[in-house]
Amino acid sequence: MRGRKAADNSHFLKELSERTVMNIGIVCYPTYGGSGVVATELGKALAMEGHQVHFITYAMPFRLDGFYNNVFYHEVEMPNYPLFEFQLYTLALASKMVDVIRYEKLDILHVHYAIPHATSAYLAKQMIQKEHDIKIVTTLHGTDITLIGLEPSFLPLVKFAIEESDAVTSVSRFLREKTLTNFNIKNKEIDVIPNFIDTELYTPSLDCGLRKQYAPQGEKILMHVSNFRPVKRVSDTVRILHEVLKSVPAKLILIGDGPDRSEAERLSRELGIAEHVRFLGKQTGLPQILSAADVFLLPSQSESFGLSALEAMSCGVPVVATSSGGIPEVVVHGETGYIAEIGDTERMAKYVVDLLTNAKKHKRFSEASRQRAVEEFETKLLLPHYTALYERLLAQPQHNSVSTANDASNGLNSSAQNGYIMDFVV
Q: Looking at the predicted structure, is the pLDDT value of residue 97 above 80?
């Protein structure tokens, strides 16, 4: 089975030459976190390639901040009924998936973060399998495997959902090994496709407006971006600043929000450095903000990749981070930044001071950070890995439960609508 461009297709499809145009559903959390960011950026990149992309979630993804050709949003509506003490999002999501699969003729359903998205996808696949053979791709992002997924009440469910997916990817080698070990996965291949970044968007900027506003006396700027969950150890950034201030005038800018913000604010007051710490909350103009930093801090306890570190590196900002999880796959110790043990804030502060007091070294690290982002993690380099995975799944024989009659009518019509004609080779 192979894809062939239809002769009467639209102009943008002609520009795709012989590539298959697919209808792809993407399921993610829409909030301020790495999995939602990656899923949204993947969808936007696929849409720019001419594919039809359908986001399915309970709110508009925050990175979907404008109009994009070929991008559609389907909101999951949550029923309210007095009998149910807790909302049944998993079931409502599965039902919405079925609707979108059926009426938008999806080829691929790509779910990001295993809990509960992979389970909902399995339910949807079972509900619609007699009329449509949807392929399920599950991407593992981190705490769905290393933290939440290991809860006794979730572990069997996550293991089952992974094994029943048509394809599984992880964002780092570390996460793949953790998944295979923690869930005793024996007969499921997990492809490693790293997180990616648009290095043309995340690029060093000479605009120093933010520096003038928050460091008017020429102080050095340390920066941290996260969702302020406990695993991010945001308070450690305040402790690092406290040590750095003993040697170098500096400011700490914290971007994001979450449960540990109040503790970081309290600690900054307790240490007497509150005037050197600024909390900006959630922000959308990250490339410009990151470019103002001298050093990016990522003291996480658990980090399966470290997307925020990559975003900083792409803006030419060296990173001082922990050795947690997949961070060493992104940050190269002694080249693009430094890596220390979790909780060793004194060591991290020494690394920061070393960079801030050695202009030549800082420049070398800055250039190496930008180069690594461009050469290893650019969107255009990694997007083909996903499209190749999708096309490999679509080339597989259709599920036996889909009737021959449906294959001949609905399947062929769906394929024609998607911009390609299916050739069956017997």
A: yes
